[in-house]
Specification:
By secondary structure, this protein is α/β, with parallel strands linked by helices. The chain has a single domain, classed as 3-Layer(aba) Sandwich (Rossmann fold), CATH 3.40.50.1010. The protein has six helices and five strands, in the order βααβααβααββ. A five-stranded parallel sheet has the order 3-2-1-4-5, with helices on both faces. The longest helix has 14 residues. The two termini are 21 Å apart.
């Protein structure tokens, strides 16, 4: 029997913050999802924008250790999607159709351009939206992992 194809799973900005800051409520569920994704051989992806959002707090505090730890984690374990000129139209369509924030639209546009299978978020406003190029947008608790 053949092996299932590799799926791409996108983690939204807040999931990274929960994981890297060991959030008391959401840190463990995010770590569990991360471990499941990796154990199943799926490709873990996020946007460069999401990484930038996660780095705001440690940069504001000039916490070099946290900055280096976060960058090391992303460099070693995550495929980073760029917001390019080819992503612009997807961004505009998502903003126009779904009326989401610019930051959410950047992440969704990057994920859609990459053809991700699962976009994981804790943002209830995004869960269940239909965005061409993304197979499923799901909460952590309802993720089909």
């Amino acid at each position: 029997m053949g092996r299932a194809p590799v799926s791409q799973v996108f983690f939204d900005s807040m999931l990274w913050a929960y994981l890297l800051e060991a959030h008391p409520e959401f840190g463990r569920p995010v770590r569990s999802a991360l471990e499941t994704v990796q154990a199943r051989g799926h490709r873990l992806v996020t946007s460069a924008f999401a990484i930038g959002e996660v780095l705001v707090a440690p940069v504001a505090k000039a916490d070099r250790a946290r900055i280096d730890r976060a960058n090391g984690f992303f460099n070693a374990r995550v495929t980073v999607l760029e917001f390019r000129r080819t992503t612009v139209m997807r961004f505009a369509e998502i903003r126009a159709r779904h009326r989401v924030s610019a930051s959410d639209a950047v992440n969704l546009a990057c994920a859609a351009e990459a053809g991700v299978d699962l976009f994981l978020t804790n943002d209830k406003r995004l869960q269940g939206k239909i965005v061409p190029g993304i197979q499923f947008i799901s909460s952590l608790e309802n993720a089909p992992l």
